[in-house]
């Protein structure tokens, strides 16, 4: 039976319940599409066909018996390759962990398995989540399904590209400075970074622990809300986990979709996240969406967050410092790659040096070196300490802004997808792709990117909604209201939809 893989996850779940197709048929359709087209995209690093089909068969058998199942049971999902999965390779896009099989499941993986979603495999990413283009994977870059010569965003470009190319309806990513939202923006998908602590980080290979957050990558806002409900909630294994309930997110999006009204909603445009530095077409689509919000009853005000001008500088001091600390565990002794020096004595120090030289790529080395310097004696107060003070100022600016507005909005990224290799030689230009997404990570507040039309080249533009901490429900409600009934927010013309296996 033919399965329409352009449907979102909840529509596919309804088809499963209605008996239109089985989970095995749906899962096999996804696997067939991956087999036919992933050689063009390179969204996946590992495929677990046998495991996914086994779970799908279990779902079909239980459904035939009339067992009560999770609403998403039987709908396939893919995982970013820094989320540990027992018995399945987890490489973080690095030679350092090539072939490593984790001995345990991340909390989000446990919850996905308990709900019986077939896990298709692990998606490509910038090495150890360091990058904005998915060009820094040790296993080769991922390509954007909208234009295969362009980047799919990073670091989670594999998850976004897999969803955009209709290979899988759901995926998970991780967002440290925009690594879910920026790929979503340039691939025409929905990417959500929940409140810090709303989803457990236990089992996420750490990049920068005070910034990292797992989140959904989907084709619709309601899918993202449903997936956060499934994987979110308190986890005693994560000391930063929040007790906040994640229930009701999907119901909230469904309720507001019925009305479409924004009466009484106060929306703030962040002065520092628009205008100069943003591509004219990105700004034009953003302005058009603001007018739509006003027509639906929202009041729009400009808010001034002066410390946001220093957000990138603070981020690129705090993040490398935490990278330097977290990646110290990869020493060639305990697990992962081990390279012994070709000459001289085999000491722990020389093994570590040889292993890191061979196992880490250039971007990872760059950030480790910077972070080590930032934390060095005599420099920690001048750099790391000063950056943490800026972080506090950013949090205060958010608090002041949310006194004037219920949510804040901005373009998700300053440009649409650029060509592969275009910014490879200019790290600073690459880092600036995260200028609009970094502040939310520094403050720990929830933010989501939704599609916002296409530019003249047919490339997706992203629109970002930022809500106060713990107000993930409001974030999803506004995002759903934004996309309801608006053609600009549902770009379904991705060329991947019409790909033929013989092309």
Provide a brief overview of the structure:
By secondary structure, the protein is an alpha/beta fold.
User: Going across the major beta sheet, what is the strand order?
Assistant: 1-3-2-4-6-5-10-11-9-7-8
Number of helices: 16
User: What would CATH call the architecture of the domain at 9-258 and 435-494?
Assistant: Alpha-Beta Complex
Share in β-strands: 5-15%
- Reading off the top of the CATH hierarchy, the class of the domain at 9-258 and 435-494 is best stated as Alpha Beta
Distance between the termini: 23 Å
Largest sheet: 11 strands, mixed
**How many strands?**
11
Helix/strand/pairing category: alpha/beta
Features:
globular, 503 residues, alpha/beta, 11-stranded mixed beta sheet, Amidase signature (AS) enzymes, 11 strands
Description of the structure:
This protein has a domain at 9-258 and 435-494: Alpha-Beta Complex (Amidase signature (AS) enzymes). The mean pLDDT is 95. α2 (23-41) packs antiparallel against α3 (49-64), α7 (221-231) runs antiparallel to α16 and α8 packs parallel to α16 (472-483). It has helices at residues 9-17, 23-41, 49-64, 107-114, 157-164, 181-187, 221-231, 249-259, 280-295, 311-326, 348-359, 362-374, 381-404, 427-431, 438-443, 472-483, and strands at 44-47, 77-80, 119-123, 170-174, 190-193, 214-218, 266-270, 299-303, 407-411, 447-454, 460-466. It has 503 residues and is of the alpha/beta class. The chain has 16 helices and eleven strands. The protein is globular, with a radius of gyration of 22 Å. It has an eleven-stranded mixed sheet with strand order 1-3-2-4-6-5-10-11-9-7-8, sandwiched between helices.
